[in-house]
Glutamine amidotransferase (Testudinibacter aquarius), 552 residues
Amino acid sequence: MCQLLGMNCNSPTDIVFSFEGFRRRAGITDHHSDGFGIAFFEGKGVRVFRDDKPCSSSPIADCVKQYHIKSLNVIAHIRKATQGVVNLENTHPFMREIWGENWVFAHNGNLKTMPDLSESRAQPIGSTDSEAAFCYMVEKLKVRYHKKPSDQEIFNAVYDIAAELGELGTFNFILSNGQIMLAHCSTHLHYVMRKAPFGKAFRIDDDGVIDFNDFAKPNDRVNIISTFPLTKNEAWVKMEHGGFVMFKDGEKIHEVVGEYKLMEDDGTQCTQSRVA
Amino acid sequence: MCQLLGMNCNSPTDIVFSFEGFRRRAGITDHHSDGFGIAFFEGKGVRVFRDDKPCSSSPIADCVKQYHIKSLNVIAHIRKATQGVVNLENTHPFMREIWGENWVFAHNGNLKTMPDLSESRAQPIGSTDSEAAFCYMVEKLKVRYHKKPSDQEIFNAVYDIAAELGELGTFNFILSNGQIMLAHCSTHLHYVMRKAPFGKAFRIDDDGVIDFNDFAKPNDRVNIISTFPLTKNEAWVKMEHGGFVMFKDGEKIHEVVGEYKLMEDDGTQCTQSRVA
């Protein structure tokens, strides 16, 4: 398995405090040492750093730390390989163009059956179940909507795909286009919202401490998503199996709390149960 | 305009000697200071570094220099913006998936008319003519061949697209999938092959000197492609208007010397002239 880290906020924010705890799980406090990747949105562009070396000791990760990039949306991933060898093309996050935007995807889990991509124009480059699942998603979204739809329609469309692929195995993922961030939970995913009044946070993976009052402005809102909580003293929300959320500008704007439910186009939930 | 740098070789090679001369043209020996990017293939994976700061002074470019990445195929670009503002999404090289491979593209020139992408599934993310041209190419290649064709068929297909887009303006470009490297010349593009017997090379943009005997093995073959020669004493080949070459394992395997000619599927040239 792997671990996921996401950040969505309303003001460009440096993720280094969270990333420094997270990267210790790649060889020091945990065993997710088969490469890492981190993608920073900058407008419609994306800066991606990847390495097939452990994130805790990678010189590329050191470069990320030193550069202190501020971004509204960041997705990071540390890998413990289940399917696909340890190399660069199998390193998350994966990126594809949809509707003239960069979409970035990282997965934690293991799909026992690969989705059918025989007719898909989007094809995986590496050999992971994760990239195959993302290509399936890209193809479905492009075929369903030729032009970019509303956030609500994107939420519903990705939810349908998540529910379908979630039946093939464990499918925790984070997905973003640089404006919205979507998170789906099969087994383990948590999030926390940081906003005023700000206080101190104490990292779990080492003795790192930060006082957000030293960095944040009064209206800042920062959502952090992580496989497991990164701090000891904050109100992390544990997502349920089948839980699905959309964040935008640091706020949760759409949510299905748990268990799979079909969605209508207006965002209401169908009463019928899902047909596989 | 911009400047291009490409490397194709038969043994993983460190591009830093060439890159260190090239990056000086981004603010020191020339004025291509509107961002840079460099893509290193590593198997089917790609490591991309980009910055909207001048390459000569970018900390990201310093990181590239320090890391000494060895690769079989590298494409780099320093930008002097003609179309599209200076930001990350307008920074070359651009990358898209075709036939389950990463394809990387960098352009020097200026298309006066944008190609028609109204029916294209591949859409540009930024606002440059360069990315629009690449999307046009991606779409044409995916529609013409659903599965990856032979190198000769790729050469012919890209040549046809280059000839078509070359009529819309200046269209010097380098393109690679990590195995082959294609280069098309409208106005300025040069290449040099480095192989045994190796000797010294003297950089044009500073007083850098290298003796390749200190680094190369007897069978190494390295092709460097650059908008203008990077060294004073090597046999750089100046490509002609309409010239098009394919390199593989450091060798030139297909070539059209200059002027546009239609290609048959077996690689022979048609006698008829091109119809726009």
Q: What stands out?
A: Residues 270-276 of chain B have pLDDT under 50 and may be disordered.
